[in-house]
């Protein structure tokens, strides 16, 4: 039996296209609606925020969309990323499971986010855009867009959720090193930020508020566009390079996953690793269980309502049908900042409604326990977000042990935790708490959902 640990692809085997799950779905996803007319939006409605090339990708129905060569040229700096067989972790767990992880922390920004950041910066540069406004939770997306902006000569303005801005100063420093401007959200720079601060002077911030601020800035200037690091179809599309590579690498291992696991906040890394496998099954290939692991303090898929909602707190965005906790919902400030979003990607939500994705919610202490166990076995320190996927994969491996069954488990190790050491210090000091959302606030946020007939 081979004892291979890592499965590598040559650069010439990097995918030449992104995969679009919409092409293989048995039922098309619900349309995006204009908040004023409640009618499906058209390209002109999105033109103030996005270049037409990305708008076309947002509504694309073809299965394969070519990756532009300038994007692939930059991808080559870290792609194809390695696929590892977690042999030491398997021994620690004493499990018959075969555990694989796709490691996206090898990118310059340390996560999967540059897969879409580079693509979005490229298309904006082609459209003549000189400035991009965006939001970030944990800082991985902000870092990635800052990196991409530096490569294409685009100024990047980042609104970082205030609690993460305070928790993760080194992420902020990385953004500034790449040349981006980073401010804590809510800020005094926008009407939506000032409104949030008027309601709560010490507001911890939320991704919904940060999105409102970035969209407001982008809408006011013709030379500025908006970019989102998750949730939207074109973002999920760009991330499928991860799963496509994993498919080829598992062929090298002469294996195929029974279970695919990803952490879930907005949905991009989960979609990136899982959608190609889900699509292959829909086309007649082997069945694969896909597990979305989300935080118990912001349980969008397991507790949210599948309904039309705004993507931001100030209601500046179109209406999308997704699993949502309500656009005004503010989750507690737990350490996995990238998972603190009130809604789940519409395409991930639709796939769950079709029975293609399962969801579980975990508290953070158990996830950090899994991350530390993984680090001590495999040597890689996961980001707090990625710890959720590690927890899910370990639980599946222990289930194999209990049942005496060998299954192949694939998870996306979406980023490293080198900028999150305070979270680990808090964990080891016993200061990390399992936080729960406020039921009253959730009820209030859900009661404010737009009145749209399904």
From TrEMBL:
SUPFAM superfamilies: Tryptophan synthase beta subunit-like PLP-dependent enzymes. It catalyses: (1S,2R)-1-C-(indol-3-yl)glycerol 3-phosphate + L-serine = D-glyceraldehyde 3-phosphate + L-tryptophan + H2O. Its EC number is 4.2.1.20. The keyword Amino-acid biosynthesis applies. One of its GO terms (cellular component) is cytoplasm. Its cofactor is pyridoxal 5'-phosphate. Tetramer of two alpha and two beta chains. Belongs to the TrpB family. This is Tryptophan synthase beta chain. It comes from Candidatus Competibacter denitrificans Run_A_D11. The lineage of its organism: Bacteria, Pseudomonadati, Pseudomonadota, Gammaproteobacteria, Candidatus Competibacteraceae.
């Amino acid at each position: 039996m081979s004892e291979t640990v890592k499965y590598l692809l040559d650069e010439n085997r990097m995918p030449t296209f992104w995969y679009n799950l919409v092409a293989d779905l048995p039922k098309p996803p619900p349309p995006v609606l204009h908040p004023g007319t409640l009618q499906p939006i058209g390209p002109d409605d999105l033109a103030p925020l996005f270049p037409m090339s990305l708008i076309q990708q947002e509504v694309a129905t073809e299965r394969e969309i070519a990756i532009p060569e300038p994007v692939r040229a930059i991808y080559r700096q870290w792609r194809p990323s390695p696929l590892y067989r977690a042999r030491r972790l398997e021994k620690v767990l004493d499990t018959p499971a075969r555990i694989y992880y796709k490691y996206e922390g090898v990118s310059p920004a340390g996560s999967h986010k540059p897969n879409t950041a580079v693509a979005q910066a490229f298309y904006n540069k082609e459209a003549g855009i000189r400035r991009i406004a965006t939001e970030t939770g944990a800082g991985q997306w902000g870092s990635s867009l800052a990196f991409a902006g530096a490569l294409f000569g685009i100024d990047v303005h980042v609104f970082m959720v205030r609690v993460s801005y305070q928790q993760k100063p080194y992420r902020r420093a990385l953004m500034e090193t790449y040349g981006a401007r980073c401010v804590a959200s809510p800020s005094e720079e926008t009407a939506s930020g000032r409104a949030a601060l008027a309601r709560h002077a010490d507001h911890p911030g939320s991704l919904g508020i940060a999105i409102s601020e970035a969209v407001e800035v982008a809408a006011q200037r013709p030379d500025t566009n908006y970019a989102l690091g998750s949730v939207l179809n074109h973002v999920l599309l760009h991330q499928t390079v991860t799963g496509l590579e994993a498919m080829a690498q598992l062929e090298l291992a002469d294996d195929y996953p029974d279970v695919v696991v990803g952490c879930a906040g907005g949905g991009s890394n989960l979609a990136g690793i899982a959608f190609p496998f889900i699509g292959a099954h829909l086309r007649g290939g082997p069945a694969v269980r896909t597990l979305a692991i989300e935080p118990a303090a912001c349980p969008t898929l397991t507790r949210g309502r599948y309904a039309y909602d705004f993507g931001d707190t100030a209601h500046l965005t179109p209406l999308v049908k997704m699993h949502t906790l309500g656009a005004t919902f503010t989750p507690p400030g737990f350490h996995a900042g990238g998972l603190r979003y009130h809604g789940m990607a519409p395409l991930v939500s639709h796939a769950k409604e079709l029975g293609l994705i399962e969801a579980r919610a975990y508290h953070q202490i158990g996830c950090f326990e899994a991350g530390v166990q993984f680090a001590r076995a495999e040597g890689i320190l996961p980001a707090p977000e990625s710890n959720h996927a590690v927890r899910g994969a370990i639980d599946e491996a222990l289930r194999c042990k209990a049942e005496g069954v060998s299954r192949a488990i694939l998870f996306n190790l979406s980023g490293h935790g080198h900028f999150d050491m305070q979270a680990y210090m808090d964990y080891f000091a016993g200061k990390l708490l399992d936080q729960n959302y406020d039921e009253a606030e959730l009820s209030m946020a859900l009661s404010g959902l737009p009145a749209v007939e399904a």
